Amino acid sequence: MKKKKNILTTAAGIPVPDNQTSLTAGERGPVLLQDHYLLEKLAHFNRERIPERVVHAKAAGAYGTFTVTHDITRYTKAKIFSKVGKKTEMIGRFSTVAGEKGSADTVRDVRGFALKFYTEEGNWDLVGNNTPVFFIRDAIKFPDFIHTQKRDPQTNCKSDVAQWDFWSQVPEALHQVTVLFSERGIPAGIPFMNGYGCHTFSFINAQDDRFWVKFHFKTQQGIKCMSPADAARIAGEDPDYHTRQLFNAIEKGEYPRWTLYIQIMPELEAEKFRWNPFDLTKVWPHGDYPLMEVGILELNKNQENYFAEIEQAAFSPSNVVPGISFSPDKMLQARIFSYTDAHRYRLGSNFERLPVNAPRGTKVNNSYQRDGFMRFDDNGGKLPNYEPNSFGGPQEEPAYKEPPLKISGDADRWEQKRGVDDDYIQPGNLFRLMTRKQQKELIANIAGSLKNVPPDIQKKMISHFQKADKAYGEGIAKSLGL
User: Which of 6, 19, 46, 56 is labelled catalytic?
Assistant: First the structure.
């Protein structure tokens, strides 16, 4: 039997008679405006690129499953954790922070670790990093910090001066700076790094008890890092090294896995904890709040189309499900707004209806949101677009209401530190946990970047390092010849 020909058409379904030559006036004549096949191709080509993410532009991604291995229902009523053995489909996106979409994978940078779980109660997005802390704890500083990681307004080049100038005046950054310039600042690949929810979130159980929670995804492949020399070489040879490595591993059936652990803090203990437990520049010591195993995350399926499934994947900390909620973390509170707002800008107001972002276990369009660019479903049909109504439209369900969160105090612009040395204790502890070899590498990495900035900024930074640990500061000063 003769195989039916697969006919090329326009986006409107009109057959294309010739996709190789333009319509012209004569063999050598000018192109005619009526060649709508040509115009459609060129016009669409001009619009193929949507605005790239301001941060986390370069990324790899994959689908997978999350499987519960331990019972935590005493802490949360979220159905994703409802029973041991339960599997939930998910997608993950793993990115550098500062680089543009075409930048190299092997740069020294924090890595984004964004996960979307398609639960039967809607999508739960855990949008974290491969580090447990961050440079700042108040989002009002975030645009300024990111500007220091981007390009200089005059030279259009990356600037060591800008980032160190900022860090020298923001002591809370010291903890994350210590992590970033350690060996973990350049992972050997996505499977070889941990992931963290970073923020403090909350769990709510069936009795409406609230617990504060932190999420840790520990790699089962083991932590593996890359030397600066290898990273620089690979950046020139294969700037997509991590992206290719993850894709090829999954294609070969070598599925990366992580074990999810949580730390749990009873609600009232937050008031007495020696650090602000909602401060994103701090960790909760494991001696105070031990890791508790929850389940296994496995990446086991590659995308069919990168743009549709990874580039258009939209993650937001605002996507929580019943039993998982927020905390007073100032950075988290701001991200609840800023992430969804970024997606509306990049993808349009109906971004949640794209297949990769649409919930799978609940009705996609059970809201009164209507219209807007790229509304490609039935737009709610003839159903009412207001509430309350008398025609059977969706209604609120008070059973999903969270227990009240006690709040008190004066409205003011509060600094979050509790003590003068708050920002130096944990970076110092981290430095002292390192081996001598790791300390030497950390100092060399910092000095290699800090040597490019003016001496007054170097001295400011050295005073911060010395407050964390005397040997830390003296090692960097010696490396800089100060």
Answer: 56
What burial class does residue 150 get, using C-beta atoms within 10 Å of its C-beta: 0-12 exposed, 13-18 middle, 19+ buried? middle
Q: What is the pLDDT of residues 52-90, one digit of tens each?
A: 999 999 999 999 999 999 999 999 999 999 999 999 999
Per-residue pLDDT averaged across 434-462, rounded?
97
Write the CB contacts of 198 (distance below 8 Å, at least 6 apart in sequence). 128, 129, 131, 132, 133, 134, 280
Out of 19, 123, 129, 429, the active site residue is: 129
Q: Which domains does the chain have, with CATH numbers?
A: 6-48 (4.10.91.20), 59-136+185-359 (2.40.180.10), 424-480 (no CATH)
What sign has the CA pseudo-torsion 63, 69, 73, 76? negative
56 catalytic residue (yes or no)? yes
| Residues whose CB is less than 8 angstroms from the CB of residue 143 and which lie 6 or more positions away in sequence, other chains included | none
Distance of CA 69 to CAs 18, 92, 118, 126, Å? 58, 20, 18, 19
pLDDT in tens, 263-322: 999 999 999 998 999 999 999 999 999 999 999 999 999 999 999 999 999 999 999 999
Would residue 129 show up in a list of annotated catalytic residues for this protein?
Answer: yes
d(Cα 60, Cα 18) in Å, to the nearest integer? Answer: 36
